[in-house]
Design brief:
Blueprint lengths: L17 H4 L5 H27 L17 H16 L18 H10 L12 H13 L3
Amino acid sequence: MTLAKNTVVERDLKGYDGHVSTPDPGWPLRRIVLLPLVLFVVVSATVFTLAKLHLAKPAASAAGPAKLGDSVRGQVIFRETCGGCHGTNAQGGVGPPLAGAGITIAAAKAQIDNGGGVMPAKLVSGGREDDVLAYLATIVAK
């Protein structure tokens, strides 16, 4: 076997392919404007669809009728535990307003027990929950 001793390998010293480095004339417009716009539309449509489906909506509680406690203690507990989101007088804030909302006590109990949206479940329970429900009974119908 004989090998050629003078084999010359030519290499492109520029280090790039002219076609790859110079994209189509419309490419910057597609990359900078169109791609983010399409992503925005897809993400927005997904978010609005999921919000419309109410996947985090609490189911009705099977615990039966709500037992009411002391409304005065409930007001104190509400201000300490729930007031950060619903406002100290239940006028609303991050959470929805409850004063005059016209919700039933059973629905309020289901929301407290199951949570929903950004509200975690069981912020109050037991006797404290009964007291908060008694306080809510005094303000939701106003």
